[in-house]
Write a structure and sequence with these properties.
There is one protein chain. The chain is mostly helical. The chain has a domain of 113 residues: de novo design (two linked rop proteins). The chain has 25 helices and no strands. 36% of the residues are buried. It is found in: Nucleus. This is Exportin-1.
Length: 527
């Protein structure tokens, strides 16, 4: 099985052999010897990816396409597979169907392809309309979770074409999501957080997560943003956002809601800008209240919250300009909170959001001047506080990039509002930074601080030199306090190790057999 999967070009050139191999894989899917079914499914999906077109074309001396044969006997083929193996099988068949260019034929294939999971889905939904308590039954909830996982894999393979199946189950799926959420919230309210570890509640969480994963997966692969926006987003926002906001128990709030919204914003971009205030109203305050007490609680909510903020900042920046000043202050404070984080991924995301925001503001001069007047010196203070904090040394490159950009704005006269008592903003900023540093590091001489501040302006066009200037200043601070300054070169050491690893991999790739075939670049896909 392993060997035949490595020669897609040969399989594509010899249809009879390809068909024989696939039929043999179907036989192995009934073999209960340890590992055989897994290998059969893994080989099947590799062949499906690399030879997909051959399954939907009518081959010589055949009465129908092979995909039609597979769909007609699917229940027999998968009857002995475990759920995760069934999911792999469905993804493989989905890749084959994705190669059908005739949309009408493709939709017919998709309907046959999803017939088995849809029958079980329809039966559970039908029972739930008569008695909603069926959605508290362990067997039913587990089946729903498995069906949704099958749909996720089908969507991954089919791409936008999955829309015909999604439309069929979409509203029922959102209703199930809502009921599962209510069940979880009630259980936590009655029994405390420990109930989250109970199998039934875990299974309900799976249904919620797979629903969000499916929507996120399809939106990311869709090719008609307007259709998504008009037909799929309104019921999604109404169900998912309302549920997130009204859930009073923070632990019952699904962090995947935030990353799903982020992926939707990343895909739809400016099209979804009018909906951003509604999204923020639902998720912003309640999530911020969960994560602003310390740097540790709710790590997944933290990461996903800043993913969403970054997506809005990148694609829907105008939405930030239309929200009330007090809400924008919350956005700004949350960005500062992010780059002060001890979790490096959150800190770097916060710095990236801030840099992007500063660049975006340059496209909106009036809003920019108001922003600079309110926040410019505050940003300087906050960035210098993390630059001089040893736990943030690894982000020195990002700190240097932001500070160099800010000093260049001042020097170029892009900031027309006054940042201090003087008419010259360069003098205002020099004085502000010097006072700031002197109060924080009173062991430094006035001359040391003066030279450092002057250099911040002199080097603001060369980020690398600016970064070295920052590092020299940090070394001066550490020399006086007697601290170890080796961590200031952490980023360089990380880059050196990364380059060494890449070079090692490049050398290994030149020697046949030294790299696992699955890790090699895919050059033989059957597009």
């Amino acid at each position: 099985m392993y060997v035949v999967g490595q020669y897609p070009r040969f399989l594509r050139a010899h249809w009879k052999f390809l068909k024989t191999v696939v039929n043999k894989l179907f036989e192995f899917m009934h073999e209960t010897h340890d590992g055989v079914q897994d290998m059969a499914c893994d080989t099947f999906i590799k062949i499906a990816l690399k030879c997909r077109r051959h399954f939907v074309q009518l081959q010589p001396n055949e009465s129908c396409t092979f995909i039609e044969e597979i769909l007609a006997t699917m229940s027999t083929i998968i009857c002995d597979l475990q759920p995760q193996q069934v999911h792999t099988f469905y993804e493989a068949v989905g890749y084959m169907i994705s190669a059908q260019v005739d949309q009408v034929q493709q939709n017919i294939l998709i309907e046959k392809y999803m017939m088995l999971p849809n029958q079980v889905w329809d039966e559970i939904i039908s029972q739930a309309t008569k008695n909603v308590d069926i959605l508290k039954d362990m067997a039913a909830v587990k089946q729903l979770g498995s069906i949704l996982k099958t749909n996720v894999r089908a969507c991954k393979a089919l791409g936008h074409a999955y829309v015909s199946q999604l439309g069929r189950i979409y509203l029922d799926m959102l209703n199930v999501y809502k009921i599962m959420s209510e069940n979880i919230t009630q259980a936590i309210a009655l029994n405390g957080l420990a109930i989250n570890n109970q199998p039934l509640i875990k299974a309900m969480h799976v249904v919620k997560k797979e629903t969000l994963t499916l929507i996120s997966e399809w939106v990311s692969k869709s090719n008609d943003s307007q259709m998504v926006m008009e037909n799929f987003i309104p019921p999604l926002l109404e169900t998912v956002l309302f549920d997130y906001q009204r859930t009073k128990v923070p632990n019952a709030r699904e962090p995947l809601v935030l990353s799903t919204m982020a992926s939707i914003v990343n895909k739809l971009q400016a099209v979804i800008t009018p909906e951003i205030p509604k999204i923020f109203d639902a998720v912003f305050d309640c999530t911020l209240d969960m994560i602003n007490k310390n740097f540790e609680d709710y790590p997944q909510h933290r990461t996903n919250f800043y993913e969403l903020l970054q997506a809005v900042n990148t694609h829907c920046f105008k939405a930030f300009l239309s929200i009330p000043p007090n809400q924008f202050k919350l956005v700004f404070d949350s960005i500062v909170w992010a780059f002060k984080h001890t979790m490096r991924n959150v800190a770097d995301t916060g710095l990236n959001i801030l840099m992007q925001m500063l660049q975006n503001l340059e496209q909106h001069p009036q809003a920019a001047q108001s922003f600079y007047q309110t926040y410019f010196t505050d940003i300087l203070m906050q960035i210098f506080s993390v630059v001089t904090d040893t736990s943030h040394t690894a982000s020195l490159q990002n700190h240097a990039t932001i500070l160099a950009y800010m000093f260049s704005l001042v020097e170029a006269g892009r900031i027309t509002v006054s940042l201090g008592p003087s008419a010259d903003n360069v003098l205002n900023v020099q004085e502000y930074v010097a006072t700031l540093l002197k109060s924080a590091f009173n062991h430094l001489t006035d001359n040391q601080i003066k030279i450092f501040v002057t250099g911040l302006f002199n080097l603001d066009q060369d980020v690398h030199a600016f970064k070295e200037h920052l590092r020299d200043f940090l070394i001066q601070i550490k020399e006086v306090t007697g601290e170890d300054d080796s961590d200031l070169y952490l980023e360089e050491r990380e880059n050196e190790l990364k380059k060494a690893q890449e070079e090692k991999r490049r050398v290994l790739m030149t020697v046949p057999g030294m790299i696992n075939p699955h890790e090699l670049p895919e050059e033989m896909q059957d597009e």
